[in-house]
Amino acid sequence: MDRCRVEVISQTPNPQQTMYAAMHQDYSENFVVDERSEWPDEVKAGETIVKRLLAGERGHYGPLEHPQIVLNCGFFPHSVMQQARTHRVGISFDVQSMRYTGSRVMEIAEGKRDVEDIFYLRPVGDYRDRQGKRYHYSEEQRQRDLAWCLEAARGYAADLEAGWSEEHARGKLPFDYRQHFVISLNVRSFMHFLDLRSKKDAQLEIQQLCDLMWPHFQAWVPAIADWYETTRLHKARLSP
Ligand SMILES: Cc1cc2nc3c(=O)[nH]c(=O)nc-3n(C[C@H](O)[C@H](O)[C@H](O)COP(=O)(O)OP(=O)(O)OC[C@H]3O[C@@H](n4cnc5c(N)ncnc54)[C@H](O)[C@@H]3O)c2cc1C
């Protein structure tokens, strides 16, 4: 997974103040934006939100839906993108479809790129099947699988050279080709995503996506991240 990356494209610059303002409007007689100079700073706003909206399982999540963060996720296996896209509420995606792109596969066939830049295979190691039975993925087997990926890339290049469309030729590629995507989330949907996808029975690769998303969340909304880390992270608390 060493090639996988998650970088911030943009984010609400004052997320904790934004959530504070949304909460404050719920019970304020006045138009809260007129009192902007009286809002607490980011740190204090974060503490107040946790105390009034989240602590003790209060569950007042509405104000957490306003701040947005947009992340660029790169080099993830296709299976991660497929799993991530099952989440429909508060999350948007844009994904390389392999309908308009494919030159990177051609570059493997031409020997200009490393096979592992484009295709993902799990590292050598010990794994379990879904029933808990152990098995070993050996270096020898992995080398054979890399050779199979190279062969598939060559087949893809031959298909395109024969005039096939990218959307047709992609059907013959190994399943876990790497894809880049853009994901946007709000503070609430970010935590929901982590609830479901960082838990230990989620697939390894999507757990890795969560691990790479997490530092951005911590830097962006530190008070909420602290609360989340102690109450929910990795605890498999699921939404209804
Ligand atoms: C470990 C794991 C394994 C999985 N394996 C598979 C699999 O093998 N095959 C497969 O197809 N999927 C699989 N899924 C996906 C799963 O079935 C859900 O589709 C996915 O998790 C999205 O559900 P969500 O609760 O996150 O909904 P989201 O779309 O993120 O919505 C968030 C919340 O909004 C509410 N909500 C959203 N839509 C509705 C609705 N239509 N009606 C009522 N309430 C709604 C719910 O409270 C929901 O929890 C897996 C998920 C996990 C976490």
Oligomer: single chain
Helix count, DSSP H or I runs of 4 or more residues: 10
Output the CATH topology of the largest domain. Gyrase A, domain 2
Widest sheet: strand ordering: 1-2-6-3
Strand content bin:
15-25%
Structural features, described:
The protein has 240 residues and is an alpha+beta fold. It folds into 2 domains: 5-93 and 179-231, Gyrase A, domain 2 (2-Layer Sandwich), CATH 3.30.1360.170; 101-172, no CATH class. The chain has helices at 15-27, 42-54, 78-84, 103-109, 115-118, 139-161, 166-169, 187-197, 204-220, 222-231, and strands at residues 5-11, 68-77, 91-95, 125-128, 134-137, 178-186. The strands form 2 sheets. The protein has a 4-stranded antiparallel β-sheet with strand order 1-2-6-3. It has a two-stranded antiparallel ribbon with strand order 4-5. Strand 4 and strand 5 (134-137) form a beta hairpin. Helix 4 (103-109) packs across helix 6. The chain is elongated. Bound molecules: flavin-adenine dinucleotide. Flavin-adenine dinucleotide (FAD) is lined by residues 86-89, 192, 196, 201-202, 239-240.
Task: Record keyword descriptors for this entry.
four-stranded antiparallel beta sheet; 10 helices; elongated; 240 residues; binds flavin-adenine dinucleotide; alpha+beta; two-stranded antiparallel ribbon; Gyrase A, domain 2; 2 domains
Brief digest:
With 240 residues, the protein is of the alpha+beta class.
Task: Summarize the topology.
Elements lengths: L4 E7 L3 H13 L14 H13 L13 E10 H7 L6 E5 L7 H7 L5 H4 L6 E4 L5 E4 L1 H23 L4 H4 L8 E9 H11 L6 H17 L1 H10 L9
Antiparallel strand pairs: 1-2, 2-6, 3-6, 4-5
Helix pairs in contact: 1-2, 2-10, 4-6, 8-9, 9-10
The protein binds flavin-adenine dinucleotide.
